[in-house]
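Good day; I would like, with your permission, to put a structural problem before you. The record follows directly beneath this note:
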Amino acid sequence: MKTLWPRPADFNVLSETKINRKNVLALTEAADFTWEGLKAKSMNLFSLGFLNSFNAQVKMFPKMMNPEIAKVIGQYKNHALAWKLSGAGGGGYLILVSEKNIPDSIRIKIRIKELGL
């Protein structure tokens, strides 16, 4: 996880919201892929769902992305399998899924007792 920056005080991530059936379905399907990847202990399936979830969220909330965030993501595209923003859009944290160590990041390990992870 990489710390980004606080979002500006006047920022409204909901100002151009595009919540519709198609976009919500894409997010739901991505969540299913992510969960199935966890259950199967498949990094590839989990990463696919995680990245699809990010893309679905950006479709519904396009203001959560901006050129500065895209630039940070671009720095890690060769190191990470997937990424997602956390923190209400416009800043916060960039969560990176990687089996490699990513310098200057906070390492998080997923643990799910019921799945033996």
Q: What stands out?
A: The two ends are 19 Å apart (CA to CA). The CA atoms of residues 1 and 95 lie 4 Å apart. The mean pLDDT is 89. The beta strands are 2-3, 82-86, 93-97.
